[in-house]
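> call design_seq(struct)
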């Protein structure tokens, strides 16, 4: 049986001083548009997941994150019809700047116990319980 393409996407749970987590809504015209997710992006060839997050968080949210401020928490492994997603989730409590939507996406700060109120891609759902346990 041919195996599906493996896609590695790094995600980050930015946590503010009130213990809320930032989620972003996928914009129209993208796959899974309208669903909420943790910010991040595809790990490029030769890139470490931490480097991916530093680059993506700057592009998507206009914030500067240092490598030392990214702590791995857990990961998701989920098979979609046309690929398999491996998604490490990092936690970040310190950054420079104010997270602002740079790509027209909606952003929300949400308490961990309210994350289930927002429709998310199937791979993101198992990550919520880890955040609830942490916070």
């Amino acid at each position: 049986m041919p195996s599906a393409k493996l896609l590695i996407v790094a995600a980050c749970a930015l946590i503010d001083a009130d213990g809320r987590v930032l989620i972003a809504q996928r914009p129209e015209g993208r796959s899974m548009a309208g669903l909420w997710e943790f910010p991040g992006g595809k790990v490029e060839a030769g890139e470490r997941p931490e480097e991916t997050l530093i680059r993506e968080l700057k592009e998507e949210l206009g914030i500067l994150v240092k490598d030392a401020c990214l702590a791995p928490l857990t990961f998701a492994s989920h098979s979609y019809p046309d690929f398999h997603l491996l998604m490490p989730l990092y936690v970040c409590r310190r950054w420079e700047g104010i997270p602002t939507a740079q790509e027209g996406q909606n952003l929300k700060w949400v308490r961990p116990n309210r994350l289930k109120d927002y429709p998310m891609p199937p791979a993101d759902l198992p990550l919520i319980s880890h955040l609830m346990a942490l916070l």
